[in-house]
Amino acid sequence: MERNNILAPSILSADFNRLGDDIRAVTDAGAEYLHIDVMDGMFVPSVSFGMPVIASIRKETSCFFDVHLMMEQPERYIQAFADCGADGITVHAEASTHLHRTLQAIHACGVRAGVALNPATPLSALDYVLDDVDMVLIMTVNPGFGGQKYIPQMTEKIRSLRSIAQERGLPLDIEVDGGINASTIRTVLEAGANICVAGSAVFSNDRAENVKRFLDVMKEYTAW
Ligand code: DX5
Ligand code: ZN
Fold first, then answer.
1. Would the pTM count as exceeding 0.85?
2. Starting at the edge strand that comes first in sequence, how are the strands of the sheet with 135-139 ordered?
3. How far apart are the first and last CA of the chain?
4. Which member of 34, 38, 114, 190 lies 3.0 to 4.6 Å from 135 by CB, making a disulfide possible if both were Cys?
């Protein structure tokens, strides 16, 4: 089936004082996903926001809510995030001891299941769960903050994962997150990503203009 490359603006870099306006600006401009970063102050140093914020913005838009849980033992909150409006839930392989069970729990809630890998975590962490996930999120920075620089070694990791997925015949979504801008986006699309998160590069200056520029580049690449 023909599919498009997808832009997922990360609201972590939005202006929270006018969050609804920021979300409308990027979805009206054509972004299909909203990337929603939940941080617990344990798995990553920072704390962001949680269920009440997600439930509140859910009333304003029908776009896909791509919830990235940067938290320890995310299995404690799967049902809660599904209930407040997540369409996809991504947990970190490093944070969930019984990862396979957690992925089953996500699917049992009727939402798409993703696994995220920190930059230092090898792809082999996915060997026995790849058939049970809809998406793999390759962190292209160390998670915790927006506005960091893309780690160049991640390009090879994306490329390897795409070739593993192709060998296994899996229509896997590969999402990249961190340091994606006008130049790194070409690198990751070429390497095998089909969903690109962008925070600071979208939510600065003219949001709609930024989204349009990203989408124009993404259309140049056939989706994997
Ligand atoms: C980082 C978060 C990212 C962040 C990306 O830990 O997972 O989603 O918002 O921000 P940029 O695009 O600015 O690197
Ligand atoms: Zn994220």
1. yes
2. 6-9, 195-198, 173-177, 135-139, 112-117, 88-92, 64-70, 33-39
3. 11
4. 114
Residues shown for the chain:
224
**What domain count does the chain have?**
1
Cβ–ligand 1 distance for 180 under 6 Å, the answer yes
Q: Which long-range contacts (CB under 8 A, 24 or more apart) does 153-159 make?
A: 153/119, 154/119, 155/187, 155/188, 155/191, 156/191, 157/117, 157/123, 158/188, 158/191, 158/192, 158/193, 159/191, 159/192
Encode pLDDT of 157-174 as tens digits.
999 999 999 999 999 999
Q: How confident is the model at residue 1 (pLDDT cuts 50, 70, 90)?
A: low
Specify if 72 maps to a domain: yes
Domain boundaries, position 31? 6-218
- Catalytically annotated residue among 37, 40, 66, 134: 37
Residue 224 domain flag: no
- Which of 66, 141, 180, 203 has most ligand 1 atoms within 8 Å of its beta carbon, as the pocket-test mutant? 141
- pLDDT confidence of 156, banded at 50, 70, 90? very high
Instruction: Indicate which CATH number applies to the domain containing 127.
Output: 3.20.20.70
Mean pLDDT of the chain: 97
- For residue range 181-215, what is the model confidence (pLDDT) as tens digits? 999 999 999 999 999 999 999 999 999 999 999 99
199 lines ligand 1 (CB under 6 A): yes
